[in-house]
Design goal:
This protein has 387 residues and is of the alpha/beta class. The protein is 39% helix and 13% strand. The chain has a seven-stranded parallel sheet with strand order 1-7-8-9-10-11-12. Strands 2-3-4-5-6 form a five-stranded antiparallel sheet, with helices on one face.
Length: 387
């Protein structure tokens, strides 16, 4: 099977020739893995691990006249080159959304500093992107078609995440207070984001992309960051309108939802509005086996490898035990994509990282017998002592 055929089978809840494997790690880990295998490129690593290669078709460009006039440099952050930015000093920058961030002294993390609505409620004080600013790309559809012909699963550009982008513009504490004290303002800023996102997503869908992904956390380790009923009142309506409006252009486009933490309270809602893949089923927060048993026939699960316990602190046996758990209890009847539950960090031993992916690559699918009669009460990562 090609990567695209494998993904289609998985999303249709049919067992593929093997479980799709997606890599996801920081640049330091990639360098360590390349050194481990004695290769020079990321592509060689992907081939060694038989990882399924997704391909982005390129972004849909939006004109930000004021921002583009002020661009004055490039900056490197924790995952590589941040790109062209407005530099405020050697490590502090402002992006096109007016969000100010700072690269940490060790270059490992980004720190939020400020946003255009941190000190004002006036949504008209910011020069928002509009559909009129989107630069049409006449070659987009052909690029997508060519990638599909090559057997790739094609990722399209999404827009700005309604929760994440809003809090970055407002400040997290302010935004969380708004959910309770000023939900009408939250609804208003999400409406601005929706108009832009829908224009982007509809163009991607018209070009024939396979999937549109949204990454942004709405939960903590043990619960949602906002009351679930408020999320349903606000965010759920955003997603319902976005996915419905996008699929009016292309009913076949798939949607991917990421949030760390315990999102159990809203999984039913995510399925209802039309998400096809839920990531990362973080095993320190939820039991992936339970999520699969309850919802796995209606949505594809993606992730599950512990980046808080097993990968940084486990033994090689712990790592292999975790892979076996994920395959046995999440991969039956298709509907599962293997990867870690977030970007594998620089503090994970390369031996554990390699063992994690090699064990998945070489896994004997005959061990996956079908829906288990009983599932473990908790995932194996909880038996690994975090240090």
């Amino acid at each position: 099977m090609t990567p695209r055929e494998r993904m289609l089978a998985t999303l249709n809840h049919k067992m593929p020739d093997r479980i799709p494997i997606q890599l996801g790690w920081r640049s330091e880990v990639m360098e360590a893995v390349k050194k481990h295998y004695g290769v020079e490129t990321e592509g060689e690593v992907a081939r060694i691990l038989d990882a399924d290669l997704c391909r982005g078709c390129g972004g849909i460009k939006t004109k930000w006249p004021d921002y583009e006039k002020r661009i004055n440099g490039e900056l490197r952050g924790p995952f590589g080159n941040i790109g062209k930015t407005v530099l405020l000093d050697e490590r502090t920058f402002v992006d096109e959304w007016g969000v100010v961030e700072r690269v940490g002294h060790n270059g490992k993390y980004l720190e939020w500093v400020d946003g255009p609505f941190a000190k004002t409620d006036d949504l008209d004080s910011f020069d928002w992107p509009t559909e009129a600013r989107i630069v049409e790309d006449p070659g987009l559809k052909e690029r997508v078609a060519e990638l599909k012909r090559q057997g790739y699963w094609v990722l399209g550009p999404g827009g700005a995440h309604p929760f994440k982008q809003a809090w970055r513009m407002r400040g997290l504490e302010n935004f969380l207070c708004d959910y309770v004290a000023n939900p009408e303002w939250v609804e208003a800023i999400q409406e601005r984001i929706l108009k832009y996102d829908l224009a982007i997503c509809r163009r991607a869908a018209a070009a024939g992309v396979d999937m549109i992904s949204y990454w942004g956390d709405v939960a903590m380790q043990n619960r949602m960051m906002v009351p679930p009923e408020m999320w349903r009142r606000l965010d759920k309506q955003f997603w319902k309108r976005l996915i419905k409006g996008t699929r009016e252009v292309n009913p076949e486009v798939r949607f991917f939802f990421h949030s760390d933490g315990n999102i159990t309270d809203i999984i039913e809602d995510l399925i209802e509005v039309g998400f096809d893949i839920i990531n990362p089923i973080q095993p320190e927060c939820v039991n992936p086996a339970m999520i699969k048993k309850k919802w796995g026939s209606r949505v594809t699960l993606d992730g599950g490898g512990s980046v808080q316990r097993t990968l940084p602190f486990g033994t090689l046996d712990d790592v292999r035990r975790e892979v076996d758990f994920l395959m046995r209890y999440c991969a039956y009847d298709g509907g599962y994509i293997f990867r870690a539950s977030n970007a594998v960090s620089f503090d994970c031993p390369v031996q554990n990282v390699v063992a994690f992916y090699e064990t998945a690559r070489d896994y004997d699918l005959s061990k996956i017998k079908g829906p288990p009669e009983e599932i473990p009460e908790r995932p194996p990562c909880m038996d690994v002592q975090a240090q």
